[in-house]
From TrEMBL:
Entry GO MF terms: DNA binding; N-methyltransferase activity
Source taxonomy: Archaea, Nitrososphaerota, environmental samples
Record-annotated DNA methylase N-4/N-6 domain positions: 10-84
Protein origin, superkingdom: Archaea
GO biological process: methylation
Protein name according to UniProt: Modification methylase MvaI
Keyword terms, alphabetized: Methyltransferase, Transferase
Pfam families to which the protein is assigned, alphabetical: N6_N4_Mtase (PF01555)
Amino acid sequence: MSSLVSVTKEDWTFRDISTKEYTHGFHLYPARMHPEIAKRLIQKYIRKSSDIVFDPFMGSGGVLVESMLHGNNSVGIDLNPFAVLLSTVKTTPLDAAKLETTFNQIILDSKKDKKNKIEYDNAPNFLPKNQKKNL
């Protein structure tokens, strides 16, 4: 109980701390928990690296990201399929070598392509006719 009392005396405003570090800024998901709240709670209450962090309403996955940064495994669930997708994207490690290879290939391909206009055989039907002409 004493640790709970000490937590309530701390400053939890985080006014000058960015909410967009790491993958936290990927999407402006509504009603996100500030990453520093998750970070502070994990630092305060997760004792061992073998502890698993559970987030029953993971939303954009901020708690899961902070858990990874702290060296813990985590499990999150959400009813919203977009939340599941976003959290998966934010917490899936990338292979740096594969990322660099793919990036370099995109740059090479873009330099080879001399077209200044993309031709569409079937322009999307939802576009107004005047916009279809400009594709």
